[in-house]
Known about the structure:
Blueprint: E1 3-16, E2 19-25, H1 29-32, E3 38-42, E4 52-60, E5 65-71, H2 75-81, E6 88-95, E7 108-114, H3 119-131, E8 136-143, E9 156-161, E10 168-169, H4 172-178, E11 185-189, H5 192-205, E12 208-212, E13 228-230, E14 242-244, E15 251-253
Parallel strand pairs: 7-8, 7-11, 8-9, 9-10, 11-12
Antiparallel strand pairs: 1-2, 1-6, 2-5, 3-4, 3-6, 4-5, 12-15, 13-14
Amino acid sequence: MKYREQAEVLRIAQIGKDIFSMYLQTEQIAKEALPGQFVSVYCRDGSRLLPRPISVCQADEDTAILRLVFRIAGAGTLELSRLVSGDRVDLVGPLGNGFPAERAEDRRVLLIGGGIGIPPMIQLDHMLDELGTASGVTAVLGYRDEVFLQDDFSGACAIATEDGSAGTKGTVLDAIREQDLKADVIYACGPIPMLRALKAYAEENGIECWLSMEEKMACGIGACLSCVCRSSEVDEHSQVHNKRVCTEGPVFRSTQIEL
């Protein structure tokens, strides 16, 4: 189920350079949202017709409060960053397919986030913590330099920074190898180079791997085909080796896509 709502801004704060955390009071969206799904957020400026897709960071089923964390990437997200408590936001969601949390049962799990791909891993981390079915969960977070959201994870956290200012100097894979982290299943979200490296690492080591793709989207409902990615199977909709990130994804098993 997806809903279109006018959600109320409860609070918004800057948590990093051009990075903002916003809490919204919804009616149904937060009650239905699963880890890895996203919402389409519409701007007030009528000249910006297309919504901005933003991953769900946290969703509270009891209170229907939705948390979004986003980076200013253009005029639309700049407008969102200037909202204040009491403002109302037009959004549609939850959209897309999320992470299959049930695959973590009795298994060692690595939650891997890179940059603005870190926020959607928080809800999955909290869900796995509540379920208590995984045999161990470690978050591995990759940054260019500035560290954010690391304290929002419930368990062990490994950090990698490109400039070496915190944690391991290098990539998330450098941190995994340096700390000799083991996994039976990997869940990850982040830039394509990171996902490509994790896909290869998982295949080399026989690890089940689920990747959340970050692609530019327009409609968010699978009609425009602007967010397709290369797939290993023929898509029923387009009849080519493509999958629509907004509907078939954004989460795919790594063997389903080509990077």
